[in-house]
Amino acid sequence: MLKPQTTPTRELVNLDGVWRFATDPMVGDAPWAATLPGSLEVAVPASFNDQFVDPAIRGHVGLVWYQRNVRVPRGWKDERIVLRLDAATHAGAVYVDDTLVAEHVGGYTPFEADVTDVVTAGGEFRLTVGVDNRLTNITIPPGTVTTGPDGRQKQSYLHDFYNYAGLARSVWLYSTPSRFIEGVTVTTGREGANGTVDYRVEASGTVRVILRDADGGQVTAGDGANGRLVVPDATLWQPGAAYLYELEVQIVEDGAVADTYTLPVGIRTVEVTATEFLINGEPFYFTGFGKHEDTAVRGKGHDNAYLVHDFELMNWIGANSFRTSHYPYAEEVLEYADRHGLVVIDETAAVGLNLGVMGGLTGAPATPTFSPEGCNDQTRDAHAQHLRELIARDKNHPSVVMWCIANEPASNEDGAREYFEPLIELTRELDPTRPVTIAEVMFATSENDKVADLLDVICLNRYYGWYVATGDLETAAQYLEMDLRAWADTHGKPILMTEYGADTMPGQHSVWDVPWTEEYQRDYLAMHHRIFDRIPSFVGEQVWNFADFETSLGIHRVGGNKKGVFTRDRRPKAAAFALRERWRGIGNSKPGAED
């Protein structure tokens, strides 16, 4: 599925704006059949929750309904007309007037419907979208829905961020010719100073491709739906120095272009050795963050102003990478990373596959995670579909260098290998060019983990000095070093810290190691960096988290998770300046390691 764009043969209408809105209890049995009742309106793109002050709406569990009228451009007669939603969290049903045209499960990947036969060029239709925010043991991410004495549904889940929902990304109406380009896949490589671009086009008709440089000049061209283009003296896409070629794909009929689509292409290679992560054959050391799509009022709604500002802050602090924790981000984020040379670990929404979280730091689950009542074959099927959609969407982005197929699953439990091995195999089948990883929970050690040997890179989430040895950085340092060396000795693979952090209230200060103070966060991170620099196979550090973010209600979080180096409104804490000094000094190179 190609992202919609305007070309000489395609047109695009953005449907963002203010839509009519209702929750399921406010409507009848067929809310798509007429104008939604009431006067509620909601902004798109944005999560619906924080836009309203009524707690019954903010915390609603179940279906909500979005609706607006849409005018089809009159020039689209004889064109194929498609309706696309960039996401509906966590499931969507789309109606054009009274006709159901699309259904989709999965809250962070796009879906679309060919509506050519149910709309009319120049005409208007009523667009209604039902969005279901419920999570169960067979959804990704999983959760549990219960019904209280008053009949209201209550949602619980094991991931530590708020279950924002709704239409958090853009909605589009676009046109293509009747014979059109359906898909494009590119993989890049190097042959000496030359670059290679292997392409595969899904289209009916005669295909021609043209590769242009950043100035628009033609570099090379080819005929056929599959082939290889050789780029003499190629300029590579590099971390911090992005260079993008443009691949124009055409369907040619009787000498005329029937359809055209353009795809940015970054020529680069990714490899993994026993101790290094290589981009273009050079060792790369990750610095950066786990992030969230999370801002006040918008929730997980994509916002271009925050997109630019967040990347500016990452550039200021010297970060060269981030992980899309814990779900695929809006595609605009990856496009920006492509253009600006930030490296991305792309993660699925498989977070919370760990009932051991309920057992606290013991990691002992009340019931097994991988079981008929927990994460079962249906869960794995949903997980596999999510992987297919993620890779189909993001496979062409040069910024994406690794797939992370889950965050903190119970990889130490019985059943983990049977659950994950087919998913790892599927990921490699779908994309054999990128490494595969899982972000390992603290319960999973080098001795009891059941899937690490299947991975290309060991990614660890560790909180020594916060959840373990709280306030005792000397002891925490001993635990951390023993843990990292055990992983290195056992598996002989590159190790990347994908989470380490400490909750910090801005303005809290102390001359002692007092948790929650800005000094403790700074010293906590510095302790980790001293240990990281001693491990020869260590390839990077991504702090948890870039910015404070909203979580579910509970006594363990006051106003959300405060592990951000920046506040939720992007003000720096003291640790940000310490990280800036370290990371701007490192660049993309690993600090000197010692045995």
Keywords for this entry:
single chain; 595 residues; alpha/beta; Jelly Rolls; Immunoglobulin-like; TIM Barrel; 3 domains; 8-stranded parallel barrel; 6-stranded antiparallel beta sheet; 30 strands; 30% strand; GH; Beta-glucuronidase
Descriptive notes:
The chain is of the alpha/beta class. The mean pLDDT is 95. The strands form 7 sheets. An 8-stranded parallel beta barrel has the order 23-24-25-26-27-28-29-30, surrounded by 4 helices. The chain has a 6-stranded antiparallel beta sheet with strand order 3-2-4-9-6-7, with no helix packed on it. It has a 4-stranded antiparallel beta sheet with strand order 1-12-5-8, with no helix packed on it. The chain is globular, with a radius of gyration of 24 Å. The longest helix is centred in the last third of the chain and has 19 residues. Helix 4 runs parallel beside helix 5, helix 6 runs parallel beside helix 7 and helix 7 packs parallel to helix 8. It has 8 helices and 30 strands. It has 3 domains: 166 residues, Galactose-binding domain-like (Jelly Rolls, Sandwich), CATH 2.60.120; 85 residues, Immunoglobulin-like, CATH 2.60.40.10; 273 residues, Alpha-Beta Barrel (TIM Barrel). It is an enzyme of class 3 (hydrolase). Belongs to the glycosyl hydrolase 2 family.
Short description:
This protein has about 600 residues and is an alpha/beta fold. The chain contains eight helices and 30 strands.
